[in-house]
Amino acid sequence: MKKLYWESIEVNNQKFFFTVTEKGLNFVSSPGKYLSELFDFYPDRYDDQFMYDDSVTADYLSEFTDYFDQKRQDFDLPLDLENIGTDLQHQVWAEIQKIPYGQTVTYKQLAENIGKPKAIRPVAHAVAMNPDLIVIPCHRVVRSSGDIGEYRGGKETKKALLELEKKPIEKHALISKLPLPKLSQLGKSDL
User: Fold this and answer.
1) Which residue ranges form the domains of the chain, and what is each CATH number?
2) Distance of alpha carbon 20 from its chain centroid, rounded?
3) Tens digits of per-residue pLDDT, 32-41?
4) What is the pTM of this model?
5) Domain named Methylated-DNA-[protein]-cysteine S-methyltransferase DNA binding: which ranges (predicted)?
6) Under 8 Å between Cβ of 20 and 4
7) Do strands 141-142 and 105-106 pair parallel, antiparallel, or not at all (unpaired)?
8) Which is nearest to 37 in space by CA: 129, 140, 125?
9) Catalytic-labelled residue, pool 138, 141, 142, 162
10) Digit-coded pLDDT (tens) for 93-109
11) Is the separation of the CB atoms in 128 and 93 below 8 Å?
12) Is residue 138 annotated as a catalytic residue, yes or no?
């Protein structure tokens, strides 16, 4: 029996669930959906053992938190895409991960990037079948018409993610300026 460790993060009153295997992140839910959405992607997971163990999921939760706090643009966490998807889907998901933070590509460009310029519909289907929302940033794939297109997490969520990534990232000083001490604090009288 395979173990799946689950966790959730709440963003703007919307809860995202995610699951992690021993190999890596394997699912991120749509916001406001329950963990059971996992079975739409992995119908054979009914036999898996679901466990909550924050020592397993803490690094993943930290990366999601940093992303939503605009402290992170890329995810370093490992993914577990074993037993899901076709070769084309894996090719598309790998290409999606190359889309830079704050930028978008069209479905047509994505199809061209993987060397299948006439496969726009199958590429769009592969985007829709992405099990790891946000980490495999399919929200960055838009229609050629300029419309943002559909999104498993909902159009409003896609729009919010694109807007989040367009906001300028606040730079924080590594060392904050401290006030200089008065001479009297150094054991000398003020001048």
Assistant:
1) 3-78+171-179 (3.30.160), 87-165 (1.10.10.10)
2) 14
3) 888 888 888 7
4) 0.83
5) 88-166
6) yes
7) parallel
8) 129
9) 138
10) 999 999 999 999 999 99
11) no
12) yes
